[in-house]
Amino acid sequence: ANRKIGIPCDAIVDHTSTHTTHTTNTTQHKREMSNYNQPRIIQLEEGWNDQIKAKAIDVLIDILDNNFEGGRKGFDPGEYIPIYTTCYDMCTQRSPYNWSRDLYNRHGETIQNYLTRTVLPALRQENGIQLLKQLRVRWKNHVIMNNWLKKFFTYLDRYYVKHHSLPTLSEAGLRHFKIQVYDVIKSDACSAILDMVNQHREGSVIDKDLVKNIVELFEAMGMGNLEAYTADLEAALLTGTSEYYKRQCQQWIVTDSTPDYLIKTERALEEERARVADYLNSESEGKLLNCVENELLESVELELLEKEGSGCRFLLANDKSEDLQRMFNLFGRLEHGLEPMASIVQKYITSKGDECHTAREERLKVEKAKEQNVDPEFISALLELHQKYLNVIRTDFAGHALFQKALKDAFVDIVNRKTGKYSNAELMSGYCDRILKSGGGEKLSESEVEGKLDRIVQLFSYLTEKDLFAEIYRTQLSKRLLTGRSLSDDSEKFMIAKLKLQCGTQFTSKMEGMLGDLAVGSDYRSEFDARMRQDNFSTKLDFSVQVLTTGFWPSSKTVNVVPSTEMTKCMGEFKKWHDSKHAKRKLTYMFALGNATVRAVFGKKSYDIQVATLQAIVLDALNGGVTYTFTELAEKLNLEEAVLKPLMHSLSCGKFKVVKKEPSGSKINTTDTFMANPKFSASTRKFRIPMASLDATHNVKRVEEDRTHAIEASIVRTMKARKTLAHQSLVAEVLSQLAFFRPNAKTIKMAIASLIDRQYLERSADDNGVYNYLA
Q: What is the average pLDDT across 236-255?
């Protein structure tokens, strides 16, 4: 091969030798280069004294001590980077030349030494506001120092601190300040802050920024929480606040009226709220306001509410709406602050109701007239009283539940207290009748009628005898409807709808049935009139019949009077027509409920007289100038004495004496003689002759029976569900279920005894006060 290439063997040897020599020289060169690039070891004292301390720490301390003279705030990059590099190198050298632990310790010693030798002595020389100013400067300097040292020793935070789970440089700096400075001067600083706060409360101008800066220092000493602020400043602040407002309370309660006192209290609360916003921690607001509330409100609440000439009663009596609203808002801040106030409101409203009852009593004594079941003045006074204080509770007390209950409890007492012969249920129903009856005495627009009805239903809601009201109202409603004296169907329906909303369908079902009968009755009359015309039925009467459903209408006295011939003829025709439509229905004529218009001629003048059907029958009997004694008239008409006497009294002793009685007088006797009054004269052509009702306004016995049935049904319903129940529990359960009246415990006990006799219940063999249900 060598021979082919033409290269001599010695050339190969020489070449190899030359190559080997070159490789040896290259290795030696690399070793020399490696020794040249290896960094120099920095000794601890050399790095610390010559670089870090001399060029960074001493310079920084000098800047702080000279209060940043020349406008120097720190280090520029050219100064900062070499220091950082030195720290970095000292922390990254291999052991035993890694100075991380030593640098971390010296970082803390540097801060500690500066605080103890420079900062603390400077602070100890000051007190009061000067202490706070010096503390603000020193704290600000410490923050700057801590930040720069953190920058210089950043590499420690990144690795050494994390690896050894040590406090970060920032945390360590704060801890040193807390231990060396804060713990020493916190008490004096707190006292100085409290002095400034009290000066501010007295109206002096203070440096709010200074206080805010020191408060921020207290917050920072918590190391991420507010423990230091709460324990070292807030606790003393709250104590001082309580003491300050306790002194204020003692002064104001003597010199100021309740409204003036509350105005000052309101202002104090606003100022404390603003104080927190200006320079305190927001977490202190609730606690601080609570101190003010306790000292200025809770400690003297009853004294303020009951203060003579300016307390709650005085404000209510004089309609001091603004003061009442302020009182409500302030005492509403207390946990149970509104309860005494609501109690006073309830008692005051009750006292105003007492005045209404007293006025009614005095009026009944003065008038000395026969008491009637209508007293619009009394009911109007109650309505005005209720409306007034309902508005007060809605506007001044924001409709608060406590005050709504106070109003309810007051009016339950007022409305259910009986004054005079008639109950309030009768008076309220009579008031409704007066409004809803045409010619009732008040000329009101439709909206005014609905307004009054709405308010009377509000008053009705407090009534415990709702069933009695319903019975009376139904009787009066029937009279309005049957005599054609109802103001309007819409008003009647409006009232029934209000009662239905208040008490439910069961309460108003019969009333709605009465209106339904009238609606159907108009169709019946039209159909009957058409039938009479078709049959060419001839009569002098304009005859019509209103068919009523027995279950809907109040029971009424049945009068078996002998009607006139013409009336009997018409009645027969109607019966024939009605039987053809409803063969299984029985008709019973209620003459006491009907009405008629009689055309009467006295002398040369004719009159249209509106009377009841019974009155019309009597007038027809006396037609033509005939004369009858009382007994003869009773036999002719088949009327009882108890019915005929009020009839004849209305015709011969009233305002319109269309019948002449002999002997004359205001009392009807069985020996009297009656005839048409030939000398009768009236200024109006059309008039109405009222007649005393033959029925009571309500059937007391029926109401009592209905109540007994309701009580027994409630007892059975309860026992069926519970099976076994103690006496007191059963009474309480029954009372809670009865919405339309409130029986006493004795009545319920009697009902239980009755059910035991009828074997619905039995007494327990083990306990006589426990009942068992018998299926």
A: 95
Query: Strand, helix or coil at 544?
Result: coil
- Report the pLDDT averaged over residues 689-713: 77
Q: Measured between alpha carbons, how far is 319 from 481 in angstroms, rounded to an integer? A: 43
Residues 6+ apart with CB under 8 A from 105: none
CA 612 from centre of chain: 52
Cα–Cα dist 574/197, whole Å: 97
- What φ, ψ does residue 688 adopt, rounded to 5°? -120, 135
**Of 383, 544, 532, nearest in space to 451 by CA:** 383
**Amino acid making up residue 425:** A
Integer angstrom CA distances of residue 458 from 329, 382, 500? 27, 11, 13
Position 507 pLDDT exceeds 70: yes
CA-wise closest residue to 558 among 701, 695, 700: 695
Secondary structure class of 559 (helix, strand, coil): coil
For residue range 147-193, list pLDDT tens digits in order. 999 988 888 888 888 888 899 999 999 999 999 999 999 999 999 99
With 0-12 CB in 10 A as exposed, 13-18 as middle and 19+ as buried, what is 618?
buried
Residue of 215, 264, 254, 216 whose CA lies nearest to 237: 215
Answer yes or no: is pLDDT of 6 > 70: no
Q: H or E element: which one contains 719?
A: helix 700-722
Residue 709 has pLDDT above 90, yes or no: no
Most distant CA pair in the chain, distance:
187
Q: Which of 81, 84, 74 is nearest to 143 (CA)?
A: 74
Nearest partner of 515 among 532, 499, 527, judged by Cα: 499
The confidence score (pLDDT) of residue 338 equals: 95
Mean pLDDT, the chain, integer = 87
3-state helix, strand, coil in the chain (%, to 5): 65, 5, 30
Q: Which two tokens stand for residue 523?
A: 């169709």
Q: Are 132 and 192 in contact (CB under 8 A)?
A: yes
The pTM for the full model equals 0.77
Q: Which residues contact 107 (CB under 8 A, 6 or more apart)?
A: 149, 153, 156, 169, 172
Q: Is the pLDDT of residue 281 over 90?
A: yes
Q: What is the pLDDT of residue 695?
A: 67
Compute CA 613 distance to the chain's CA centroid, rounded to the nearest angstrom: 55
Cβ–Cβ under 8 Å, residues 484 and 595: yes
In the prediction, which pLDDT does 698 show? 58
Three-state DSSP class for 166?
A: coil
Q: How far apart are CA 719 and CA 731, in angstroms?
A: 11
For residue 521, what pLDDT is reported? Answer: 79
Beta strands of 426-470 (E only): which ranges? none
| 231: Cβ contacts below 8 Å, ≥ 6 apart | none
- The mean pLDDT value for 418-423 works out to 87
Cα gap 391→407, rounded to integer Å: 11
The separation between CA 742 and the C-alpha centre of its own chain, rounded to angstroms, equals 26
The residue type of 774 is L
Reference 135, options 210, 206, 224, 207; nearest CA is 210
> pLDDT tens digit string along 205-233?
999 999 999 999 999 999 889 999 999 99
Sequence-distant (≥ 6) Cβ neighbours of residue 72 within 8 angstroms:
63
Sequence-distant (6+) residues with CB within 8 A of 608 are 597, 598, 599, 685, 686
State how far the alpha carbon of 255 is from the alpha carbons of 112, 250, 251, 300, 318, in Å.
56, 9, 7, 14, 21
